[in-house]
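Regression test case RT-17, inverse folding.

Input:
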Protein backbone atom coordinates (compact mmCIF):
# COMPACT_ATOMS: atom_id res chain seq x y z
CA UNK A 1 0.00 0.00 0.00
CA UNK A 2 2.97 2.34 -0.48
CA UNK A 3 1.04 4.20 -3.17
CA UNK A 4 -1.66 5.15 -0.66
CA UNK A 5 0.77 5.78 2.20
CA UNK A 6 2.43 8.56 0.24
CA UNK A 7 -0.81 10.54 0.44
CA UNK A 8 -0.57 10.73 4.23
CA UNK A 9 -3.49 12.43 6.00
CA UNK A 10 -4.29 15.04 3.34
CA UNK A 11 -7.71 14.68 1.66
CA UNK A 12 -7.50 14.10 -2.09
CA UNK A 13 -9.86 14.41 -5.03
CA UNK A 14 -11.01 11.50 -7.15
CA UNK A 15 -8.80 12.71 -10.03
CA UNK A 16 -5.69 12.30 -7.86
CA UNK A 17 -6.61 8.71 -7.05
CA UNK A 18 -7.31 7.99 -10.72
CA UNK A 19 -3.85 9.26 -11.65
CA UNK A 20 -2.25 7.06 -8.97
CA UNK A 21 -3.88 3.98 -10.44
CA UNK A 22 -3.68 4.97 -14.11
CA UNK A 23 -1.81 1.72 -14.87
CA UNK A 24 -4.99 -0.24 -14.11
CA UNK A 25 -7.37 -0.97 -16.98
CA UNK A 26 -10.26 0.28 -14.84
CA UNK A 27 -8.87 2.63 -12.14
CA UNK A 28 -12.43 3.46 -11.04
CA UNK A 29 -12.92 -0.18 -10.04
CA UNK A 30 -9.67 -0.14 -8.07
CA UNK A 31 -10.81 2.98 -6.20
CA UNK A 32 -14.21 1.42 -5.47
CA UNK A 33 -12.51 -1.72 -4.12
CA UNK A 34 -10.20 0.34 -1.88
CA UNK A 35 -13.21 2.13 -0.43
CA UNK A 36 -15.08 -1.15 0.07
CA UNK A 37 -12.04 -2.60 1.86
CA UNK A 38 -11.84 0.43 4.16
CA UNK A 39 -8.44 1.51 2.88
CA UNK A 40 -9.74 4.87 1.76
CA UNK A 41 -12.64 6.83 3.25
CA UNK A 42 -15.12 8.87 1.23
CA UNK A 43 -15.50 12.35 2.75
CA UNK A 44 -18.02 13.58 0.19
CA UNK A 45 -18.69 12.93 -3.47
CA UNK A 46 -15.33 12.95 -5.27
CA UNK A 47 -13.17 13.46 -2.16
CA UNK A 48 -11.35 10.84 -0.09
CA UNK A 49 -8.77 10.35 2.62
CA UNK A 50 -6.51 7.38 3.29
CA UNK A 51 -7.62 5.27 6.25
CA UNK A 52 -5.54 5.64 9.41
CA UNK A 53 -4.96 1.88 9.24
CA UNK A 54 -3.00 2.45 6.04
CA UNK A 55 -1.38 5.83 6.75
CA UNK A 56 -0.67 4.88 10.40
CA UNK A 57 -1.35 8.53 11.28
CA UNK A 58 -4.18 10.18 13.17
CA UNK A 59 -6.81 11.71 10.92
CA UNK A 60 -7.41 15.41 11.67
CA UNK A 61 -11.12 16.36 11.66
CA UNK A 62 -10.07 20.01 11.54
CA UNK A 63 -8.02 19.48 8.38
CA UNK A 64 -10.88 17.54 6.82
CA UNK A 65 -13.31 20.34 7.66
CA UNK A 66 -11.17 22.85 5.76
CA UNK A 67 -11.09 20.58 2.70
CA UNK A 68 -14.71 19.45 2.54
CA UNK A 69 -16.15 22.93 2.07
CA UNK A 70 -14.58 26.33 1.70
CA UNK A 71 -13.49 28.88 2.20
CA UNK A 72 -13.93 27.94 5.83
CA UNK A 73 -12.21 27.88 9.19
CA UNK A 74 -12.92 25.70 12.24
CA UNK A 75 -14.66 27.61 15.01
CA UNK A 76 -17.26 27.72 17.80
CA UNK A 77 -17.17 24.84 20.28
CA UNK A 78 -14.91 22.83 17.95
CA UNK A 79 -12.17 25.47 18.27
CA UNK A 80 -12.89 26.15 21.95
CA UNK A 81 -12.44 22.45 22.69
CA UNK A 82 -9.27 22.35 20.56
CA UNK A 83 -7.77 25.08 22.75
CA UNK A 84 -8.92 23.41 25.97
CA UNK A 85 -11.27 26.29 26.82
CA UNK A 86 -14.29 24.05 27.32
CA UNK A 87 -14.24 20.52 28.77
CA UNK A 88 -16.96 18.79 26.76
CA UNK A 89 -16.23 16.38 23.96
CA UNK A 90 -17.43 17.81 20.66
CA UNK A 91 -19.23 15.42 18.32
CA UNK A 92 -19.36 17.60 15.21
CA UNK A 93 -16.88 19.98 13.63
CA UNK A 94 -18.40 23.43 13.17
CA UNK A 95 -16.90 25.97 10.82
CA UNK A 96 -17.65 29.43 9.50
CA UNK A 97 -17.83 30.13 5.76
CA UNK A 98 -18.65 32.95 3.37
CA UNK A 99 -20.63 30.48 1.26
CA UNK A 100 -24.09 29.23 2.09
CA UNK A 101 -24.54 27.06 5.16
CA UNK A 102 -24.02 23.34 4.60
CA UNK A 103 -23.82 20.08 6.53
CA UNK A 104 -21.90 16.94 5.57
CA UNK A 105 -21.91 13.55 7.28
CA UNK A 106 -19.39 10.78 6.68
CA UNK A 107 -17.74 7.98 8.66
CA UNK A 108 -15.31 10.48 10.22
CA UNK A 109 -18.05 12.66 11.68
CA UNK A 110 -20.47 15.52 11.14
CA UNK A 111 -19.23 18.74 9.54
CA UNK A 112 -21.35 21.89 9.79
CA UNK A 113 -20.76 25.24 8.09
CA UNK A 114 -22.37 28.52 9.11
CA UNK A 115 -22.49 31.58 6.86
CA UNK A 116 -20.93 34.88 7.92
CA UNK A 117 -20.21 38.04 5.94
CA UNK A 118 -16.82 38.51 4.29
CA UNK A 119 -15.60 41.40 6.50
CA UNK A 120 -16.38 39.48 9.67
CA UNK A 121 -14.99 36.22 8.26
CA UNK A 122 -11.46 37.59 7.85
CA UNK A 123 -11.08 38.66 11.49
CA UNK A 124 -9.12 36.49 13.93
CA UNK A 125 -8.21 33.49 11.77
CA UNK A 126 -4.95 31.64 12.39
CA UNK A 127 -3.09 28.92 10.53
CA UNK A 128 -2.48 25.96 12.83
CA UNK A 129 0.68 24.01 11.96
CA UNK A 130 0.71 20.37 13.08
CA UNK A 131 4.15 18.81 13.46
CA UNK A 132 5.36 20.54 10.27
CA UNK A 133 3.24 18.07 8.29
CA UNK A 134 0.05 19.96 7.52
CA UNK A 135 -1.86 23.11 8.38
CA UNK A 136 -5.49 24.08 8.78
CA UNK A 137 -7.38 27.32 9.36
CA UNK A 138 -8.97 27.77 12.76
CA UNK A 139 -10.46 30.70 14.65
CA UNK A 140 -8.34 32.29 17.33
CA UNK A 141 -9.77 31.69 20.83
CA UNK A 142 -11.31 35.17 20.79
CA UNK A 143 -12.91 34.73 17.37
CA UNK A 144 -14.21 31.25 18.25
CA UNK A 145 -16.01 32.68 21.28
CA UNK A 146 -17.38 35.61 19.26
CA UNK A 147 -18.62 33.13 16.65
CA UNK A 148 -20.25 31.06 19.37
CA UNK A 149 -22.10 34.10 20.63
CA UNK A 150 -23.12 35.54 17.26
CA UNK A 151 -24.21 32.22 15.75
CA UNK A 152 -26.28 30.99 18.72
CA UNK A 153 -29.96 31.66 17.98
CA UNK A 154 -32.09 33.57 20.49
CA UNK A 155 -29.13 34.34 22.76
CA UNK A 156 -30.05 37.46 24.72
CA UNK A 157 -27.65 38.79 27.35
CA UNK A 158 -28.09 42.22 28.90
CA UNK A 159 -25.28 42.57 31.44
CA UNK A 160 -21.65 41.65 32.02
CA UNK A 161 -22.79 39.36 34.84
CA UNK A 162 -25.17 37.58 32.47
CA UNK A 163 -22.28 37.11 30.04
CA UNK A 164 -20.15 35.57 32.78
CA UNK A 165 -22.94 33.20 33.76
CA UNK A 166 -23.43 32.20 30.12
CA UNK A 167 -19.73 31.41 29.74
CA UNK A 168 -19.35 29.54 33.02
CA UNK A 169 -22.66 27.67 33.19
CA UNK A 170 -23.84 27.24 29.60
CA UNK A 171 -20.48 26.77 27.88
CA UNK A 172 -18.51 25.65 30.96
CA UNK A 173 -15.82 27.99 29.66
CA UNK A 174 -12.59 28.37 31.66
CA UNK A 175 -13.17 31.98 32.70
CA UNK A 176 -9.60 32.38 34.00
CA UNK A 177 -8.34 32.15 30.41
CA UNK A 178 -10.03 35.43 29.46
CA UNK A 179 -6.97 37.30 30.73
CA UNK A 180 -5.07 35.80 27.76
CA UNK A 181 -7.56 37.13 25.21
CA UNK A 182 -6.67 39.69 22.57
CA UNK A 183 -9.14 42.53 23.08
CA UNK A 184 -8.50 43.92 19.59
CA UNK A 185 -9.93 40.82 17.94
CA UNK A 186 -13.18 41.17 19.90
CA UNK A 187 -13.31 44.90 19.12
CA UNK A 188 -12.93 44.20 15.40
CA UNK A 189 -15.67 41.57 15.54
CA UNK A 190 -17.94 44.20 17.10
CA UNK A 191 -17.23 46.56 14.20
CA UNK A 192 -17.79 44.03 11.42
CA UNK A 193 -20.29 41.51 12.76
CA UNK A 194 -23.74 41.16 14.26
CA UNK A 195 -24.90 41.09 17.91
CA UNK A 196 -22.55 44.00 18.61
CA UNK A 197 -24.29 44.85 21.90
CA UNK A 198 -23.70 41.36 23.28
CA UNK A 199 -20.09 41.29 22.08
CA UNK A 200 -19.52 44.59 23.89
CA UNK A 201 -20.47 42.80 27.10
CA UNK A 202 -17.83 40.17 26.35
CA UNK A 203 -15.26 42.89 25.74
CA UNK A 204 -16.12 44.54 29.06
CA UNK A 205 -15.77 41.19 30.83
CA UNK A 206 -12.35 40.60 29.25
CA UNK A 207 -11.24 44.04 30.40
CA UNK A 208 -12.16 43.39 34.06
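Golden output:
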Amino acid sequence: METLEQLGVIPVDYSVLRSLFSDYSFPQNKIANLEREGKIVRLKRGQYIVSDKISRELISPELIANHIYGPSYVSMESALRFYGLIPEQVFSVRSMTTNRSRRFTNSIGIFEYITVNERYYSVGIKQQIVEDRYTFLIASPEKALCDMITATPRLKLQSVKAMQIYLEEDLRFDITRLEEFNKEVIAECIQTGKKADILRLLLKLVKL
